Amino acid sequence: MNWSPILEAPLAIQVHFYTVVPAFLIGTWMIFLSTKGAPVHRGMGYAYWALMLTTAAASFFIRSSSGGFSLIHLFIPLTLFSVAGAFLAIKKGNVQGHKRSMYGLYIGGLLIAGALTFLPGRRLYEVFFGA
Predict the structure, then answer these.
(1) Domain residue ranges of the chain, discontinuous segments joined by +
(2) Model confidence over 40-69: pLDDT tens digits?
(3) What number of CA atoms fall less than 13 Å from residue 91's CA on the CB side?
(4) Whole-angstrom Cα distance, residue 43 to residue 118?
(5) How far is Cα 39 from Cα 60, in angstroms, rounded to an integer?
(6) Contact (Cβ atoms closer than 8 angstroms) between residue 91 and residue 60
(7) Which residues contact 47 (CB under 8 A, 6 or more apart)?
(8) Phi, psi of 48 (to 5 degrees)
(9) Which pTM value belongs to this model?
C-alpha cells in the first residue's frame, strides 16, 4: 500500500478523504450496531452529519483529469438531499423517513460512490493496487 497519492493530493481531495473515512466508520456503526434513538446514536449522528456535509462540500472542489465534473459528482446532490431529508424527517418525528434517507445516503453516498473510487485511474486504486 502506498499512501502518497493521498498525501500528495490537492487539499480538497485530502479533506474529502479524511472526512469520508470516519463518516464511513460511523455510518457502519450507526446502521449495524447502535441503539437507534439513544443519546450516543444521536450524538454520533450529528458528527456523521457534519462529516458528510464537509465531504460533499470538498467534492465541489475536486475536478476530473479533464478539469470538469465527472459522473461521480452526481453523488453530491444525493448526499446533500439525503442529509437534509434525514435531518428534517427526524425533527418531525418521521423515523421511517429518517431511516430511508440514512440508508440511501449510506448505500449511495458511501458504498456505491466509495466502490467507484477503486476503479483504475482513481487515487484509491493507486493507493491499494499501484499506478
Answers:
(1) 10-60+70-129
(2) 999 999 999 999 999 999 999 998 777 888
(3) 7
(4) 31
(5) 32
(6) no
(7) 22, 26
(8) -60, -45
(9) 0.92
